[in-house]
Amino acid sequence: MSSDQRFFDFLKERIGLDVGSVGPAIIERAVRQRCTAARALTTDEYWHSLLGSRDEQQALIEAVIVPETWFFRYPESFATLAKLAAKRLAAINNMRALRILSLPCSTGEEPYSIAMALLDAGLAPHQFKVDGMDVSPLSVEKARLALYGKNSFRGQDIDFRERHFMAENDNYRLSGRVIEQVRLQVGNLLDPALLASEPPYDFVFCRNLLIYFDQPTQQQVFEVLKRLTHVDGVLFIGPAEGSLLGRFGMRSIGIPQSFAFSRQSAPEPLATFVPTPLPLPVQQPVRSVTPPPARSRPFATVVPMPQVAATPSDATPSDAATLLANIAALANEGKSAEARAACDSYLRSHEPVAQVFYWLGLLSDVAGSALEAQGFYRKALYLEPQHPDALMHLAALLQSQGDTAGARRLQARAARSERAADSERKR
């Protein structure tokens, strides 16, 4: 089936999905699946069926969505949340319960991880409540079931499973004590009035979602997130979204691997820093949040596709692009070791490029190897001095280590680079 812009536009309107962030093949495959399920003989016939059925619209969205999540993904974020929650309760004199939002919440692993982390940190049930929201009714129903297979438990530290789950055949049932802390519902982040009647949240988790949107949609969604987050609150995002938050005036709180941002304190604002995204074709679908729509979770798709340097005579630019896309897909699936091996494979068969060292830096950053990450980011900047994401991530690392002056210099470089790029684009 050839690309059909009608379906791309439909998904863009309903869930904000930028087709370039996932590649048209994923959407085309979903359309083919739904054509077969709906017994439509042609795409035109299916298109008319889609327009006339709200259930079919949701079914297509569900076919595009592939949840990729597990308990305590990015564990430092939850450790940071526990520390910040205790401080926040003291700041408000325990006058009310903390409010935490997880969206998109997918099949529940994230909001339940939040509840487990806070209970394990000693908070009493009456001291916090968690709202989980997703655009997918199917995902929300699975979250309410609270029955999980082994794929939801990854990493070396899964002691929490003994504390909070009961074995049930080949699966694990979450304890009622945790379930009671979480309220789940369907909702769409593209709705400007989302949760408009609710007070703001002390902590908001919205990870690996913005990277699936184009810049206007990112701005629209960020305005909703900003409204939902208390002025003194903290927003937790995905590893690849730091430069986006910097562009919108948010600042890292300075705790490595927490991917936590606030409106406060920071080196010079970088409102002018707007990286031009040219997404890698990640083989992993999406997510957002809504009654009619969907969601996301890649590791990094908004990173610009590098200008591949000269390659050996037996390698082609398409080989390089395939390897780079493979790195993105592996990292997106949480397969850090495999992604690192793919980076090594690239460097063995091609001339070094900044983007590969940036990936190695990001993988080291997520793994908690700050010194190693810093070295890789610097190699990326040696090859490409104005690499925007390497500048931003290295600046965040330096800031977390107390090197405010160094962080400011890097941020200033990023801002100057973007101003120069803007001037060039206007010519």
UniProtKB/TrEMBL annotation:
PROSITE patterns: CHER (PS50123), TPR (PS50005). InterPro entries: Bact_Chemotaxis_MeTrfase, CheR_C, CheR_MeTrfase, SAM-dependent_MTases_sf, TPR-like_helical_dom_sf, TPR_rpt. CDD domains: AdoMet_MTases. GO terms for molecular function: S-adenosylmethionine-dependent methyltransferase activity. Keywords: Methyltransferase, S-adenosyl-L-methionine, TPR repeat, Transferase. It comes from the Bacteria. The keyword Metal-binding does not apply. TPR repeats lie at residues 354-387. This is Chemotaxis protein CheR. It comes from Pseudomonas lini.
